[in-house]
């Protein structure tokens, strides 16, 4: 196994790592996708967000413990390999890489759809390729360049959430004090079928949708390796995960449910925009557009980064061609691994155009299961550390099992779960083939 611990740059600062973690929790799916989650469950969706928040918290704590107490040094992928063996490491690495390459293509399509009305003369594919190469160029500039862009993208998202919370809270206070029209909170929460209009099963059924918008915080364990204090940064970030979930997700969802009737939301329209329009905030449309587009670019930026680093790590362990180990001597970044993700994403975009969305829809349907699967491997790896503190990972495993069960139970997500399981099976077959000789040798010994 090849190891090149000092080849990559260590130029990311603590402020970069902090904002990468903050931005990783809040993606474009949160600003738009929460409408779909609310419509699927009704006001009780708040409980679903609490469950997802607990799950993300436990996964982050597991990553922290792996970084500090694990048998080796490196990202959460390396810890999975060290604790659960090379075959599981192969499976985890390629499943994670495939997930983010698909997400990369999805975000490019979303960004092009937002830009399309502004440049009506350009075909969608041209806009998609432009966005993809733009963010690839950012990642090829330097590791610090990635960190700086992600820092400011995250600042935009956090400022937007802070503005929304302040405006929403002021609207509630103003109505309660009689300084303006009162907000019919009770009417919005209870007069459209009650708190549980879609049934109690909807609490679990909506969890995959919510988790998809919450995942991404694990990128910080990859990015921290290119800072001057990896372990310290991981500990600092995981200390604040509970407050981030409370501040970003639970507070925002609670305010949305109080301020507007949940049944009036539209799946493709941001509920943040609905609230701001109702309150009478000027230029709300442009403000929300900038925030969502920044979130798309942020996810694009992170997807290009993390696919390159995971592919580089796979190559370090001989699970990918050594061709991807080549590092630019001056900038200390794996250019070939960066370009590999971009080329595969272009291939997905071209195949999407030829297959009329069918192939891309199939690939995208896998990502939810693959993300849950990688989270499961993280908490299972944590259970391999024998320190007698396993209740957190066990709760996380239970919640993940319930989520997988909900995906299989609900007709809308059943096919997504099955396609994801097929992808895991195929990667597992390659993993078995990759290590078949080594397993035979071990048995012989």
Characterize the biggest β-sheet: none
The helix fraction, in percent, is over 70%
Oligomeric status:
single chain
What's the order of the H and E elements? Answer: HHHHHHHHHHHHHHHHHHHH
Please tell me how large the radius of gyration is: 22 Å
Spatial separation of the terminal alpha carbons: 20 Å
Low-confidence stretches: 1-5, 440-445
Class based on secondary structure composition and strand pairing: mainly alpha
Mean pLDDT: 83
How many helices? The count is 20
Hey, roughly how much beta strand do the residues contain? under 5%
Structural shape: globular
Strand runs, count: 0
Question: Could you explain the architecture of this structure?
Answer:
It is a single chain. The chain has helices at residues 14-25, 28-41, 45-69, 76-84, 86-115, 124-141, 143-176, 185-190, 202-205, 207-214, 219-223, 230-239, 241-259, 271-279, 284-316, 335-355, 358-383, 391-409, 411-434, 436-444. It starts with 13 loop residues before the first helix and ends with a helix. It contains 20 helices and no strands. Residues 1-5 and 440-445 have low confidence and may be disordered. The chain is globular.
In short:
By secondary structure, this protein is an all-alpha fold. It is built from 20 helices and no strands.
List the helices and strands and how they pair.
Layout: H1 14-25, H2 28-41, H3 45-69, H4 76-84, H5 86-115, H6 124-141, H7 143-176, H8 185-190, H9 202-205, H10 207-214, H11 219-223, H12 230-239, H13 241-259, H14 271-279, H15 284-316, H16 335-355, H17 358-383, H18 391-409, H19 411-434, H20 436-444
Helix pairs in contact: 1-7, 1-12, 2-10, 3-10, 3-12, 3-13, 3-17, 3-18, 4-5, 4-17, 5-6, 5-15, 5-16, 5-17, 5-19, 6-7, 6-15, 6-16, 7-13, 7-14, 7-15, 10-17, 15-16, 17-18, 17-19, 18-19
């Amino acid at each position: 196994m090849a190891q090149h611990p000092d080849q990559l740059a260590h130029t990311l600062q603590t402020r970069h790592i902090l904002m990468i973690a903050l931005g990783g929790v809040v993606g474009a799916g949160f600003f738009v996708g929460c409408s779909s989650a609310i419509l699927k469950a009704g006001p009780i969706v708040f409980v679903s967000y609490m469950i997802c928040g607990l799950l993300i918290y436990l996964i982050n704590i597991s990553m922290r413990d792996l970084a500090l107490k694990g048998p080796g040094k490196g990202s959460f992928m390396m810890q999975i390999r060290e604790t659960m063996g090379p075959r599981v490491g192969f499976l985890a690495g390629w499943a994670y890489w495939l997930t983010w390459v698909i997400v990369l293509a999805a975000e490019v399509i979303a960004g092009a759809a937002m830009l399309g009305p502004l440049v009506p003369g350009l075909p969608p594919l041209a806009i998609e390729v432009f966005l993809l190469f733009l963010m690839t160029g950012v990642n090829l500039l330097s590791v610090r360049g990635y960190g700086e862009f992600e820092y400011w993208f995250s600042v935009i998202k956090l400022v937007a959430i802070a503005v929304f919370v302040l405006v929403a809270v002021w609207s509630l206070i103003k109505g309660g004090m009689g300084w303006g029209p009162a907000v019919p909170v009770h009417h919005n929460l209870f007069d459209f079928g009650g708190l549980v209009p879609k049934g109690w099963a909807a609490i679990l059924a909506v969890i995959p949708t919510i988790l998809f918008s919450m995942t991404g915080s694990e990128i910080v364990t990859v990015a921290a390796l290119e800072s001057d204090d990896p372990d310290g940064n991981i500990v600092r970030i995981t200390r604040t995960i509970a407050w981030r979930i409370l501040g970003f997700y639970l507070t925002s969802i609670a305010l949305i449910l109080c301020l507007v009737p949940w049944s009036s939301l539209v799946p493709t329209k941001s509920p943040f925009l609905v609230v701001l329009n109702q309150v009478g905030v000027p230029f709300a449309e442009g403000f929300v557009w900038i925030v969502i587009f920044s979130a798309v670019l942020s996810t694009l930026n992170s997807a290009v980064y993390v696919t390159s680093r995971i592919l580089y790590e796979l190559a370090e362990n001989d699970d990918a061609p050594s061709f991807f180990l080549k590092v630019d001597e001056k900038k200390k970044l794996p250019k070939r691994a960066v370009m590999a993700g971009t080329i595969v994403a272009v291939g997905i975009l071209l195949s999407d155009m030829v297959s009329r969305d069918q192939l891309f829809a199939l690939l995208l349907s896998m990502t939810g299961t693959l993300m849950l699967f990688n989270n499961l491997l993280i908490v299972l790896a944590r259970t391999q550390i024998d320190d007698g503190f396993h209740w957190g990972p066990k709760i996380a495993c239970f919640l993940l099992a319930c989520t997988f069960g909900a995906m299989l139970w609900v007709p809308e997500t059943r096919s997504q779960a099955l396609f994801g399981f097929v992808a895991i099976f195929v990667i597992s077959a390659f993993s078995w083939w990759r290590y078949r000789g080594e397993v035979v040798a071990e048995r012989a010994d």
